[in-house]
Write a structure and sequence with these properties.
With 197 residues, this protein is an alpha+beta fold. The protein is built from one helix and 14 strands, in the order αββββββββββββββ. It has two domains: 39 residues; 143 residues, Sandwich (lipopolysaccharide transport protein A fold), CATH 2.60.450. β4 and β5 form a beta hairpin.
Amino acid sequence: METTYFLKLKNSIPLFIAMVLVISIQSCEEDLASTNAKKKTNFASQVIYNANILQRDSGFVKVRFKAPLIEKYELIDTPYVEAKKGIYIEFYDPKKPKVPGKIWAKYAKFIEPTEFYQAKGNVKVLTNDGQSFAMQSINWDKKNHKMYTSDTVFVSDKNGNILVGANGMEAKDDFSAYTFYNSSGNFSSKNISPAKR
């Protein structure tokens, strides 16, 4: 009987070792899962220095984009692209291909899933009609073709007319029409096309 008991014990050793291994592997998997959950994913997955990007449509240049630094964050729930050191953009109208509109800002962010753009810090927009818009920030809702800000907007044209929108503005994204809130200034209505009034 002792031999039989010894054989049972001997056969249970591999089973015991297998159980210990299973428990150890499960424990390691749980540790890895908790470690991965704590990993930081909000870091730039792509970085471009001294970017000079052209966007064309049927051979026609639509946009020229320049930025000293572009960082793309795509390993998070809401991916975005950030230009922390400022941007300069030229946008071209097929009707006036030699005179681009221009945008400058000290900071810009593009939220990819919603196609939403933000520009901040001494934002200046110069249209191809010669109108200049200056403000501290502006938002562009690309899907709805709308630009807006609640900041004070200073508008001037090539004739020296000035308009101030103290409580911001809304505009079509091609600046063909806009609305100013709490505006004042000496902007002649003759210098504003009927679509923009």
